[in-house]
Amino acid sequence: MLMSLLHFLPDADDPYSTVARLVSALPPGSYLVISHGTYETLEPEQAAQFKALNAASPVPFQPRDRREVGRFFDGLDLVEPGIVPVAAWRDDDRDDDRDGPRPPADQVAYYGAVARVP
User: Fold this and answer.
1) What is the CATH classification number for the domain harbouring 104?
2) CA 106 from centre of chain
3) Count of domains observed in the chain
4) How deeply is 32 buried, as exposed, middle or buried, from its count of CB atoms within 10 A (0-12, 13-18, 19+)?
5) Which pLDDT tens digit goes with each residue over 81-110?
6) Domain interval for residue 85
């Protein structure tokens, strides 16, 4: 499970190779779970604010779009619903009485996905 982690690895650190190396050590039938920050789902004004905050931060932050997040799953079998904003993950299975209201998927700046190692 690589939850809220990979966006702290800039492209210069080659996170795709790191994940591929991790996955290569997993037995068939294992699962890879990723959540990853993105600006792609935000309104342009919100994205600009986050970009400004990121530029001023000493901590590297590399948001990625859906295609870039998808590269972490190359060669794996994505589980439905695929790569989606985390608020949309299995929304039909959700018990609103227990979990409370969920923000609209287009206002969540995180993608999430699960994939099975063949």
Assistant:
1) 3.40.50.150
2) 14
3) 1
4) buried
5) 999 999 888 766 555 556 667 676 666 799
6) 2-116
